[in-house]
Amino acid sequence: MRIHIATDHAGLEFSTRLQHHLSDQGHDVVDHGPLEYDALDDYPAFCIRAAQAVVRDQAAGIETLGIVFGGSGNGEQIAANKVNGVRAALVWNIATAELAREHNDANVIAIGARQHTFEEAAKFIDVFIATPFTFEERHVRRIAQIAAYETDGSLLPDPRAVPRGGEDADAMDPEAG
Fold first, then answer.
1. Is there a contact between 76 and 9 (Cβ–Cβ < 8 Å)?
2. What is the rounded CA–CA span in Å between residue 34 and residue 36?
3. DSSP 77-135
4. Catalytic: which of 27, 103, 120, 139?
5. pLDDT at residue 1 in the model
6. Which CATH superfamily is domain 2-152 in?
7. Residue 40 CB: number of other CB atoms within 10 A?
8. DSSP label at residue 159
9. Which of 4, 9, 32, 76 is catalytic?
10. What pLDDT, on the 0 to 100 scale, is given for residue 8?
11. Which residues contact 156 (CB under 8 A, 6 or more apart)?
12. Is 139 a catalytic site residue?
């Protein structure tokens, strides 16, 4: 499997170790992070490039996932999720790694490199990579709703916007005259 990785300075050492870990497992690892340590670098471009590569490879039929990380993983997840077609999940334990794949078909994992030991984070990533999407109808349906919003802004109707029990809308509004 191809794995796209991105980090900032907070995860640079972690990234190097992780690339070796994944390569030793036979993965094709592509690094989108910094080339050297710079305490003032900014993660968004690194993470967005990795996320774009995941979407591009998946569209080409290449089995691929992405990994983004920094100090907390929060900003990296936000940046990756700005790319259409990315479902990046912030993972902090085995259960969230499994559920990200099983229920959300997440294609990018975000991890806080300062929040976990390398061994913990590597285990989360290994589980994420090994866990398949379930293809259960409810999960497929929900992912399709997210994709529809991402594509054209459409949402399911708001149940609060429809009067209930045959009441007219003004009867529900205490300020209606």
1. no
2. 6
3. HHHHTTSTT--EEE--SHHHHHHHHHTT--SEEEEETTTS-HHHHHHHHHHHHHPPP--
4. 103
5. 98
6. Sugar-phosphate isomerase, RpiB/LacA/LacB (3.40.1400.10)
7. 6
8. G
9. 76
10. 84
11. 145
12. no
Instruction: Using a cut of 0.85, tell me whether the model's pTM lies above it.
Output: yes
Sheet holding 28-31, edge to edge: 28-31, 2-7, 64-70, 108-112, 88-90
Look up residue 85 and give its two tokens.
């077609």
The size of the chain, in residues, is 177
DSSP assignment letter at 92: -
The owner of tokens 């990994």 is 67
CA distance readout (Å), 142 to 6, 8, 153: 27, 32, 15
**What separation, in Å, do the N-terminal and C-terminal C-alpha atoms of the chain show?**
64
Stretches where the chain sits below pLDDT 70 are 163-177
The string of pLDDT tens digits covering residues 26-64 is: 999 999 998 888 888 899 999 999 999 999 999 999 999
103 annotated active-site:
yes
Domain ranges, ordered by start, for the chain: 2-152
